[in-house]
Amino acid sequence: MYRIYRLLELNLRIKPRKRLVRDKPEPLSVPQPVSASVVESVLSRHIDDLEPTLTRHGYRTKDLVELFDTKATEIKAMFNNTLEPARSTELREKMLRAGLPI
Questions:
Q1: Distance CA 65, CA 62 (A)
Q2: In 1-102, where does DSSP find H-type helix?
């Protein structure tokens, strides 16, 4: 091995790897307190409406259509308060009887 390295004029000494020198990180800044305007911009104003409540409990529109034998457009219209009042109360009573968290 030594002769081959000498013939090829290779260096036998193993060179240590150079390590990167990192600067010390800057200290973390102190976070600003949360104001009411930040909370209002993040949270939805309609968080306690019917659709978000049912979604939080795991009911999707597709599930409600299958449970109550209705059309998806009727469920969406009920969520948007554009369904006729008689049909809306009928669906609401069915949901209450089924034990949905309304």
A1: 5
A2: 2-8, 36-42, 50-56, 61-68, 72-79, 85-98
Calculate the alpha carbon distances from 81 to 8, 11, 19 in Å: 87, 83, 66
**101/54 Cα distance (integer angstroms):** 7
pLDDT over 80 at 32, yes or no = yes
pLDDT tens-digit profile of 46-64? Answer: 777 888 888 888 889 999 9
Q: pTM for the full model?
A: 0.54
CB 79 within 8 A of CB 49: yes
